[in-house]
Write a structure and sequence with these properties.
The protein has a 4-stranded parallel sheet with strand order 1-2-3-4. The protein contains 6 helices and 4 strands; from the N terminus they run H-E-H-E-H-H-E-H-E-H. About 45% of the residues lie in helices and about 10% in strands. The chain has one domain: TIM Barrel. By secondary structure, the protein is α/β, with parallel strands linked by helices.
Length: about 140
């Protein structure tokens, strides 16, 4: 928490918002929804979240992030996977339910940046996300 406080202060000084990304593997201190809820309980002014939809899909926590932490989401990363490991596939080539995800995200009032992180088909992923958002 000390490191996050230092980074947040530096971000303010530089005019940059510091956010914390959810991750899907390893021994992260902030590895899931429960961890973020605990963080915000202990430090209500903690940085917001970069919700990585591929990572939350691997952990099967996407709905929980959107239901319980929507007000904290400042930025979104999109890429697909099969729900088992973080493979950064093109949007639509895995098992993420993109229409449902993007519809639920928009229903929270989210109006910030969405960044494509697909390593294969990034431009097709961008087009797919844009197409879905326009159809909502």
């Amino acid at each position: 928490m000390d490191s996050m406080k230092k980074l947040t202060a530096l971000g303010r000084k530089l005019g940059v918002e510091v956010v914390i990304e959810n991750i899907s593997a390893g021994h992260a201190i902030l590895g899931g929804v429960k961890d973020f809820l605990r963080l915000y309980k202990e430090w209500p002014k903690a940085p917001g979240i970069t919700l990585d939809a591929g990572h939350s899909h691997v952990k099967h926590e996407t709905k929980q992030y959107l239901r319980r932490l929507a007000a904290r989401i400042r930025h979104v990363h999109v890429h697909d996977n099969m729900g088992d490991i973080d493979t950064h596939l093109a949007v639509g080539s895995g098992t993420v339910m993109w229409r449902r995800f993007l519809s639920s995200l928009m229903a929270t009032g989210f109006a910030e940046d969405i960044v494509v992180e697909s390593v294969k088909g990034p431009f097709a992923s961008y087009d797919r996300v844009r197409e879905i958002l326009r159809s909502l």
